[in-house]
Every structure is written in C-alpha cells, then in structure tokens.
Specification:
Elements lengths: L3 E7 L3 E7 L5 E5 L5 H10 L2 E6 L5 H4 L2 H6 L6 E5 L11 E3 L4 E4 L2 E7 L8 E5 L4 E5 L2 E2 L2 E2 L7 H12 L6 E4 L4 H11 L4 H15 L7 E2 H7 L8 H6 L7 H14 L1
Parallel strand pairs: 3-4, 4-5, 5-6, 10-13
Antiparallel strand pairs: 1-2, 2-3, 7-8, 8-9, 9-10, 11-12, 13-14
Length: 257
C-alpha cells in the first residue's frame, strides 16, 4: 500500500482517518468529528492537510470542520456530496455517484450509498484497497436508516460488497462488540463469527480498535451482507425470500436489539 493510514478515535466512539502519501507529501482526512485529536495527530506526524473528505452530514462527522480549519496554517480542499451540499460545510468539490477523482495522488471512486442518510457517499481507493464507508457499511453492521429505505441500504451495501475482499472497510464508529452480539443472536453456530467474537473481545479488553476490518471478514460474519445466505434465511424463518426482504427483517431486528 503506497498510502499510510492512521485511524484516530474521536468523541466517545467515532473514528476519523488520516491518509498520507509519503511520496507526494499530501494528506487527506476522512470526516471531522472534532478538531483537537486531528490537529494533534497532524502535528505529531508533521503532515500538512491537503484535503478533507466528508461522507455525510451528521454532526458527529462534520462538527469539527470549522475548528480544524481555524487551527491549520493552510486551507485544505473540502470534498462532499453535491446532493448534500446544503447541509455540509462549504465544499470545494461537490461529488456525485461514479465520479473518479485524484486525492493524495491516488485514484478515488465515489459511491452513492444512501440509507443511513439520503446524501451519504463512500470513498473507494481501489489501488490502495481502502473503502471509507462512514456510517453506511459498518464493521459488523450497517447504519440505522434515519432517512433512506431498506431497499436503498441493501443496494448500497451490495455495491460496497462487490469491491475486492482485501479492501479495508474504514467505518465511522467503534460499534463492533454490540454488532457482534446481535450477529450471534442470529447465527450462534457460525464458526467464523464465533472466532471473530473472541478476537474482538480480546482487542477491546486490550483497548485496541476493531476498525478497520477487511471486507472478506465482513462477508463471512456481517449479517447485513449475508441476506442471500440460505442458513441465515432459514434462521430468520425466511427461507427462499428475496434478499431485500431478508435484509429488511435483519435491520428491523437490530433496531429492537
């Protein structure tokens, strides 16, 4: 991987990400929950921020932008969804689904991934095997449907599930333990899930982040990516049902879990 990736805890359970290209010296930031830990990380690394990438409009992903800009010696470019420009900080680059852009001298594909919000986008760095999915595809879960429909979210997850398995899913929160508890309630005998539950428990007891994770791991254990799986369908009493209907039931159960 040509790019350096730094995962930065923010607020109580958020993550932001710094992406640094050591060859070009450029540094991008994905989401800005708060400014202080991000300014500290940039100072510690000696990196100059060139770009800010925003996945969606929720306060815990954008509220630190103004303070961050006030604390920087330069003005980085801000990238976000054109459809959400009216509720994001001012954008230098308004993006839409299918845009292919260059950030940190790397190729980036923009994916429209509505469901959690209707203007949510993801940033896929295909050459570097990185997917910044915000609150759409979560490690071991998916975002609550505050604005979109189950059909929209199911399609969004299907699009992200199609990237290569070695891709790191860089999502916005440390929700993995609770997500695994829910997944085990659906598939208590899934061997891959049982192994992952043990690994996550050890990581959290040691104070380590469980995010990011590979898409390959998610495909084996994340129920929101497994609506097509016959064993899971049967466990839900929905054998042979349409995948979107199975997904809808999983999301409904998680909302009540």
């Amino acid at each position: 991987m040509a790019l350096d990736l730094l995962t930065i805890p923010c607020l109580s359970d958020n993550y932001a990400y710094l992406i640094h290209n050591p060859a070009s010296g450029q540094t991008a930031l994905v989401d800005v929950p708060e400014a202080a830990p991000l300014l500290a990380a940039l100072s510690d690394k000696g990196w100059t921020l060139s770009d800010i990438l925003l996945t969606h409009h929720h306060w815990d992903h954008i509220d630190g932008v103004a303070d961050l800009l006030a604390g920087l010696p330069n003005r980085p470019a801000v990238w976000g969804a054109a459809a959400d420009a009216h509720r994001l900080p001012p954008l230098n680059h308004a993006l839409k689904d299918g845009d292919c852009v260059t950030i940190c001298s790397a190729n980036v594909q923009v994916l429209d991934v509505p469901g959690h919000t209707v203007g949510h986008i993801a940033f896929h760095f295909p050459d570097d095997h990185l997917l910044f999915s915000g609150d759409s595809l979560m490690v071991m879960g998916c975002g609550r449907l505050f604005e979109g429909t189950p059909a929209q979210m199911h399609l969004a997850l299907s699009r992200m599930a199609a990237v290569p398995g070695e891709t790191l899913v860089c999502s916005g929160h440390e929700y993995t333990s609770s997500n695994i508890a829910f997944a085990l309630s659906l598939e208590p005998e899934n061997p891959a899930l049982m192994l992952r539950a043990k690994a996550v428990k050890s990581a959290r007891e040691a104070g380590r982040a469980t995010v990011p994770a590979t898409l390959a791991e998610e495909l084996e254990t994340n129920p929101f990516l497994r609506a097509h799986n016959p064993a899971l369908q049967s466990a839900l009493g929905l054998a042979g049902a349409a995948d979107v209907d199975v997904f809808t039931e999983i999301r409904a159960r998680k909302d009540k879990f």
